[in-house]
Amino acid sequence: MNCRPSCAACCIAPSITSPLPGMPNGKPAGMPCIQLDDDLRCKAFGQPKRLAFCAGLQPSAEMCGESREQAMLWLTQLEQATKPV
Q1: What's the domain count of the chain?
Q2: Is residue 3 in a domain?
Q3: pLDDT tens-digit profile of 3-61?
Q4: Alpha helices in 35-82 (DSSP H)
Q5: The domain containing residue 76 runs over which residues?
Q6: For a FRET experiment, which of 10, 12, 23, 74 has its CA 20 to 30 Å from that of 58?
């Protein structure tokens, strides 16, 4: 499965606790990654600086759903369900 154009749900919904270029403290859930460009495409895609977390996240029918909104909902729910107590 290929990424949906102008979606970036996986670059916005989850939190990232590892430092990433331009975000040394990671990013909170719901905040767009600083590596997103104006077209909601990852500027670090295919680059050595891309995080293993990001590289390992692969689009799937379950995660991406039928729309960007469904992807955001699924990823937000996953973030909430896996958040440390």
Answers
A1: 1
A2: no
A3: 999 999 999 999 999 898 889 999 999 999 999 999 999 998 888 888 888 888 899 99
A4: 52-56, 61-64, 68-82
A5: 9-82
A6: 23
Q: Determine the residue type at 3.
A: C
**15 Cβ contact partners less than 8 Å away, ≥ 6 residues apart:** 26, 27, 28, 29, 79, 83
Whether 23 is in a domain gets the answer: yes
Number of neighbouring beta carbons within 10 Å of residue 57: 14
Whether the Cβ atoms of residue 23 and residue 33 lie closer than 8 Å to each other? yes
Cα–Cα distances in angstroms (integers) from residue 46 to residues 41, 49, 56, 78, in the given order: 12, 9, 12, 25
Of the candidates 57, 61, 63, 68, the residue with the CA atom closest to the CA atom of residue 6: 68
